Request: fold
Amino acid sequence: MASLQRIRNHGALLIAIVGLAMLAFILGDFLNSGSSFFNRSRENVGEIEGQKIHYTEYEAAKEQLTEVYKIESGRTDFDEDTYAQIRNQVWNMYVMDYTLRAQAEKIGMDITADELTELCVGENVHQIIRGRRAFMGEDGQFSREAVKGLISAINNESDDAENANLKQAKDYWLYWEKAVRISYMQEKYTALLQHLLKANSLDAEYAFNGRQNGVVVDYVMKPYFAVADSLVKVSESDIKKLYNKHKEQYKQTPNRAIKYIAFDIVPSEDDFKAAETMMNNLQEEFKTTDDISLVVNTNSDIMYDGRDYSEETVPAQFKEFAFAKGAKAGDCTEILFENNTYSMARIMQAGYSLPDSVELKAIAVEEGQEDQELGWFKASDLPKNIAEPALNGKRGERFTVAQGMGEQTFEILELGKPTPKVKLAILAREVTPSSKTYSVIYNNAKQFIVNNNNAEALEAAAQEAGMTVVPQYNLTATTDKVGQLKGSRAIVRWAFEAKEGAVSDVFECGQQFIVAALTEVNDGEYRSLNAVRAELTYEATNNAKAAYLMKQLKGVESLEAAAEILGQSIQHVERVALGDSRLGNAGMEPAVIGKAIAQGENALSEPIQGNMGVFVVKTGAANNAAETFVAESEKAQLASRFAYLPYQAIQLMEDKAEVVDNRANFQ
Reply:
């Protein structure tokens, strides 16, 4: 009973303890079960107009476009620039799609399934589909049947291994179908804007009058550059006022500026000696061996596959040797050195001729299929297993080669004219940096960092050593590479993690070791005042010069007096109209033209601040053009001037879209 009483006495404490335990349990369970929620937020590549793009979705889109590139180019290997292009193209398509869709939803615009079908396989197929080589017939023209055939094959897709390539075809089709949808949505949207931007009769009349109604003008102008900077003063306050006035022009994406130096990874003298020694040691064996394939393919940069060289395809340094009069099997060159490469050649067969090209037909594999004429090929265009029987055969002969899991039969339709050939074994070794050389250069770069561990010291030491210091500005978080440095994405990542003034570790970029210094960190929404100080100072100085000149001209009563004060001659323009943008030889001065027209005939202006200097203008008599007003013609001219506005609106819409770009976290 005493124990029970003690429990009662401490009931409140026990309830609190149990409550805390339960809360911890609930929170723990929530955090564990909710971890996928937090992970999902971290796995979003970006967000566009409220639409989140998950990493897996983005990767799938990249893979899809990669397949498109493979089909369009006929290649499977791409360099880093192409992969960067693919990434950016995928992202830009997301931006275009979601921003356009958001605007279209506001006005009830959409593309129906029937519209999309018509655009893809209807009577008026969209130009995006018509332009694909994959959908062209044998005559080189667009084939609607080719499109329908592909769609049918995709719709009947099975799980058979033979139909595995249909996934690639499906990715290809779905990409272009999406591209058509986005493009047509943009076309509908711009067409709507163009309809809204039509000129009316009042617009036409105003534009016509602005071009026709003119006046004779005389003026005096003193350019700003003719006024010494020492005559005016520009304060920090003046510069700040201009900065605030133009601030919206200085919006920026967070960016970095770096400077870097390069240590070229090049062979050392020992590397050249080692390559030369190797060639000398192999020379006798190369000249006498019966197993040339083993010697060459074990040691050479150029494999021996029994290919037939012509005078056009043989390496230039061996042309005279290989096709010399009396050249025969067994002849060898001495060791040659050119372009950092040691090489020697041995004739394996000479004195024969073969065609340089062949026209082939692929014989249908399955019943119901048609043979396909493939066209003309050079030997270098064909795999060896096809080139050899094709170029050694006769017109009308057929031969069969293994292809993938099956076989393909070809027929020789025609052969080119036979030309002299030679079989040549080439032992070539390019001199490349050894691991020892690599280490020495790398250690030199590391030591340079140790001795110069801040941006200022690095630049000073590099200049003293005669090294080129390369600046690189405006690196954003998604910049794919620094300038033309290969594989330099890691430098960009470092720049966004380091502090201003820091010096990087050594980066390997192609055939160079790179050491970078972070010189600027720009994370503000706007470029800083100091970043644009030079252009603001120039503008503020011109403003001060304008005020200086206008003060000198205050109260001037004649153009002649203004010319005397400014020390300039009077210029004459026979006719100036409101529609003009240039004032005689003075250049683009719309504000001066506007004030001259506004003051009417036979009047003298007050001093006017122009783009290039300060003006005083005197108008003479009216000088109107004698053209006849044709409303429809004038409207058409205005329409052509408005034509770019819908496309500019699309670009502005994308620029102003609510976009969160997290791609840098995944690159």
In short: The chain has five domains: 2-33, 45-195, 214-251+531-622, 255-266+434-523, 269-430.
